[in-house]
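The protein record now logged underneath.
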Amino acid sequence: MNSQWANMIQEQLMRRGISDARVLQAFEAVDRAQFVLPEYRSMAYDDGPLPIGFDQTISQPYIVGLMTASILPDKDAPSVALEIGAGCGYQTAILCQIFRAVISFERVPELAERARATLHSLGIQNFELHSGDGSRGLPGKEFDGILGAAAFTSYPEYLEEQLAPGGKMVLPAGRGSQFLYMVERRERILRKRLIAVRFVPMIQD
């Protein structure tokens, strides 16, 4: 891990309150530069999103860390995550360090293929990456974590049905003004609005 990579973790995650060892270890295991287009490699550890082509972006490290920390499963429990919007695969790779398995969808076929190739090149195998619209999730299935990596026009309440007991979901939603929402399924559904964000819109069929 080079000094810029280490500084990214220290300054953008730890100093902003992301302290769970599983999240920090995941960031130490996955080099963001591997997921950035060659022309942006010099900015791979900067505090901001970067273009990945097809009008999509790789999220800033802090947002990736915050969203990951928001859906952490119980320690040592078998866990499966659903990711909606894989993009270049960076968030997927981080989730794969924490969850037993990750099922991911990416609407842009070229990005799905690139993400799949990058993940395999790094030896990451515990994922399924599907090319297609994942905005409806997988009805009839339940997940310990659900992460939406693009902004829904309105909050997708139907995805709550796919949370396993104790499961957590985080995603951006809003038309115009967007907010990051965290949801937890306990005896009842608990919803919390975290912060204002700006994500690319969810592409839906």
In short: The radius of gyration is 16 Å. Residues 62-197 form a domain with the Rossmann fold fold (CATH 3.40.50.150). The CA atoms of residues 43 and 50 lie 8 Å apart.
